[in-house]
């Protein structure tokens, strides 16, 4: 960038364009709501910095010189770009535009977000919503830290770096295959031990389930660790074993499968989180407001 361009001020460009449009210094000053001497000084300083005469002054006002016309066109373009920048910023800060970036895991994306987004789009149709699915809440929290998401769905309690709101408590269930002959309403450890177990392979679920199974009074066999919830359910349908996974992840349970709570209940607390020290846009707060207002309806629909 040259020394010349470093000297040019936005106020000088505004004054130049105003005089060119009105062909009069005094009218331009009224339009800009500044004094005529301030307009004259701004243009004189700009001409001195550029080293050319931009306006021909006379009894009938001021008109652009040939070089002035070319420079005025550039000045108009610069001012238009500045206005566009300001509009983009205002859209982001307001509710008449901008976007909300959401990070979540699959069961939330499937059972919670669609109804919330439908309501949000109805209330704020000009705000864009983007969703990125992750396999574990750990990746969701990392997306928040790295600025890839404005808000994320995670497990509670979370660390102090996040501000969180509880959404629901989701219990872990056991899915037994169609061939299961269990007729009791409550499953015991011995009955569960009769099946090869299929569990999620994500670190969070796998560790949580393995730790919980230590309460069993008989040996349990984890035969498969599978990443996709839908694959786990399909494996149970095929009679390959019994699955342990969160209820929301199992929905909808296929016809023929039997669902039980664990002999000793286990649950995960799902919440929504934002970075505690981040400056959030009104669009993000609007989404959080819709989410919390829709909470009861959404949770009933999910289960």
UniProtKB/TrEMBL annotation:
Domain of life, per lineage: Bacteria
Q: Which Pfam families match?
A: HTH_1, LysR_substrate
Q: Which residues form a coiled coil?
A: none
Q: Is Transcription among the key words of this record?
A: yes
Residues in domain HTH lysR-type? Answer: 8-65
Keywords, alphabetical: DNA-binding, Transcription, Transcription regulation
Looking up PROSITE patterns in the UniProt record yields: HTH_LYSR (PS50931)
What's the family? Belongs to the LysR transcriptional regulatory family.
Q: What is this protein called?
A: LysR family transcriptional regulator
Task: State the organism of origin.
Answer: Gloeocapsopsis crepidinum LEGE 06123
The beginning of the lineage is: Bacteria, Bacillati, Cyanobacteriota, Cyanophyceae, Oscillatoriophycideae
């Amino acid at each position: 960038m040259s020394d010349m361009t470093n000297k040019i001020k936005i106020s000088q460009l505004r004054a130049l364009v105003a005089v060119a449009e009105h062909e009069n210094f005094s009218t331009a000053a009224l339009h800009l709501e500044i004094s005529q001497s301030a307009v004259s000084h701004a243009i004189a300083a700009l001409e001195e910095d550029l080293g050319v005469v931009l306006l021909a002054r006379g009894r009938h006002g001021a008109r652009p010189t040939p070089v002035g016309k070319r420079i005025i066109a550039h000045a108009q373009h610069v001012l238009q770009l500045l206005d566009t920048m300001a509009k983009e910023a205002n859209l982001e800060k307001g509710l008449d535009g901008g976007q909300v970036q959401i990070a979540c895991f699959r069961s939330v994306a499937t059972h919670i977000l669609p109804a919330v987004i439908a309501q949000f789009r109805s209330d704020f149709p000009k705000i864009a919503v983007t969703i990125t699915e992750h396999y574990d809440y750990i990746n969701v929290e990392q997306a928040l830290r790295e600025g890839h998401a404005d808000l994320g769905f995670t497990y509670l309690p979370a660390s102090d770096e996040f501000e969180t709101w509880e959404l629901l408590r989701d219990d872990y269930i056991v899915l037994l295959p169609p061939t299961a002959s269990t007729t009791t309403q409550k499953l015991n450890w011995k009955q569960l031990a009769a099946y090869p177990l299929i569990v999620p392979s994500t670190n969070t679920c796998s560790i949580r389930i393995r730790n919980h199974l230590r309460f069993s009074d008989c040996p349990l066999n984890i035969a498969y660790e599978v990443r996709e919830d839908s694959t786990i359910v399909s494996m149970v349908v095929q009679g390959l074993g019994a699955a342990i996974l969160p209820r929301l992840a199992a929905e909808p349970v296929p016809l023929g499968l039997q669902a039980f709570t664990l002999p000793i209940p286990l649950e995960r607390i799902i919440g929504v989180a934002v970075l505690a020290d981040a400056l959030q846009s009104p669009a993000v707060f609007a989404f959080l407001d819709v989410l919390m207002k829709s909470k009861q309806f959404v949770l009933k629909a999910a289960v």
